[in-house]
Design brief:
2 strands, two-stranded antiparallel sheet, mainly alpha
Length: 259
């Protein structure tokens, strides 16, 4: 049911995007366009406010409580566990992108951490110098030809996105680890899903607090940072960077590691 609701909302939002302004060609106008292009800003700000309300009343307090009752070592193990689950999706998208390096590394990381790292609680793959690359279906769509997707979207509970990456988020629902979790009983699936959101939010407590305090317009700051971060990821997937840089742990506003 939740998937049908999400896909319905996504279809409606993408329909609205069809009326968005075209991209200018003049360099100065193009620069301004790329920095401020947000034709759905009233809707986006409303959803952004809703997401912040959920965060302030539920997610952040839960993440703070999680931090209070656990040690750093315990939290690192939990993070490693979820990161290891995401390697299954990295393998699939690496294969869909015909990228043998990323596919092979993701597979090797999953096998090493699962069998030698106590089901992913320990990141032995990094100790073995196996690089980590994040990969998702939005990147796959970019590799397949949908390179540019400028219209800014804020998705309920998922944060900043755009039409291509929103469709990619929907695609992630039908790839592991989502399918594996969906096949489990609710008593297992729900705690695992909620646990991932909580551990991700715990890792970003200080970052978001500082960002909020230092921003005159929190919405605009998040919009700019998320766009820059995502474009960097897409450029890497398209091979537009000189070297492919292994993923560093950064806060991802999309919360899309483990839908």
């Amino acid at each position: 049911m939740k998937k049908h609701i999400f896909l319905g909302m996504l279809s409606g939002i993408m329909f609205l995007c069809c009326s968005c302004a075209t991209k200018p060609t003049q360099p100065e106008q193009l620069k301004i366009y790329e920095e401020t292009n947000d034709p759905l800003e009233p809707l986006n700000r409303s959803i952004f406010a809703f997401n912040n309300l959920v965060d302030d009343t539920i997610l952040k307090p839960t993440a703070s409580g999680y931090r209070a009752v656990t040690t750093k070592t315990m939290r690192t193990g939990v993070t490693n566990f979820y990161d290891n689950l995401s390697e299954t999706r990295n393998v699939i998208n690496g294969a869909l992108q015909a990228n043998p390096e990323k596919t092979s590394n993701a597979f090797k990381r999953f096998m090493a951490n699962t069998f030698w790292g106590f089901f992913g609680l320990m990141d032995v793959a990094s100790d073995m110098d196996i690089p980590k690359y994040d990969n998702d279906f939005g990147q796959t769509l970019a590799v397949w030809g949908w390179e540019t997707s400028d219209t800014y979207l804020v998705l309920p509970l998922m944060g900043p996105s755009n039409p291509r990456d929103a469709l990619g988020t929907a695609g992630n629902f039908i790839t592991p680890p989502s399918v594996l979790i969906t096949m489990m009983t609710p008593w297992t699936a729900y705690p695992l899903t909620i646990g991932n959101y909580v551990q991700m939010r715990e890792r970003s407590i200080e970052f978001l607090d500082n960002l909020h305090r230092s921003s005159t317009d929190y919405y605009a700051t998040v919009r700019s940072m998320s766009r820059q971060n995502r474009q960097k990821v897409i450029n890497d997937a398209l091979g537009h960077t000189e070297t492919q840089t292994p993923k560093q742990y950064e806060f991802d506003m999309d919360f899309d590691d483990f839908e």
